[in-house]
Amino acid sequence: MLRDKFREFSRDTSSIGQERVDGVNGLADALIAAGHSENATVAEWKDGLNEAWADLLELIDTRSQMLAASYELHRFYHDARETLAQVQHKQKQLPDEVGRDLNTAEAMQRMHTAYEHDIQALSAQVRQVQEDAARLEKAYAGEKAADIRRHERAVSEAWAELCGSSQGRRRLLLDTVDKFRFLRAVRDLLLWMDGVRLQIEGQERPR
Questions:
Q1: Does the N terminus or the C terminus of the chain have fewer Cβ atoms within 10 A?
Q2: pLDDT of amino acid 6
Q3: Would you say the C-alpha torsion 148, 149, 155, 158 has a positive or negative sign?
Q4: How many CB atoms lie within 10 A of CB 86?
Q5: What is the CATH number of domain 1-203?
Q6: Angle made by CA atoms 13, 15, 24, in degrees to the nearest 5
Q7: Res. 112: pLDDT tops 90
Q8: Average pLDDT over residues 83-100
Q9: Residue 157 in contact with residue 129, Cβ under 8 Å?
């Protein structure tokens, strides 16, 4: 990765360069202390060298910051696309079927509870994308800032749709289970009444 290679290059260059600059500075200081006839020229070259070294260090630092910012932006785009794909995949997994009877409806309800736990794990990823977008937007302007907003909005809208669909299915399954439980209670009561009627009709009539 370019950022890691440059970090290594920066570390090595700074270390080796500083050692060499320190060596030349020591040499210049020794010449000046010894009262060399070209003291003024040596001091001038020493100052020029140190200024050039400071400029180079600043250039390395600026380049490092640019690469770090570029890496962070590309990581945001990657994370946003990946999170969006996962949210859309979960949306497609949401079934329409509610069950033909109480047993299947209750089984669907249990499956949906597990599904809700699964999508809840995605909420942390969505929140991270939103937080990263808010922070990066402050660092960029114009087209890049608009692109960051667009990626964040796509994730947030897909997430809101998924949460809405999931809640709607939970309510539908709850209503379906309640309906089947009611129908079972009605059926059980009718069977009980039929049994009572048969008992009554089976008794001997009074003479």
A1: C
A2: 57
A3: negative
A4: 18
A5: 1.20.58.60
A6: 95
A7: yes
A8: 92
A9: no
- Token pair 């033909």 is found at 100
Distance CA 192, CA 78 (A): 63
* Separation CA 38–CA 166 (nearest Å): 83
Query: What pLDDT sits at residue 163?
Result: 95
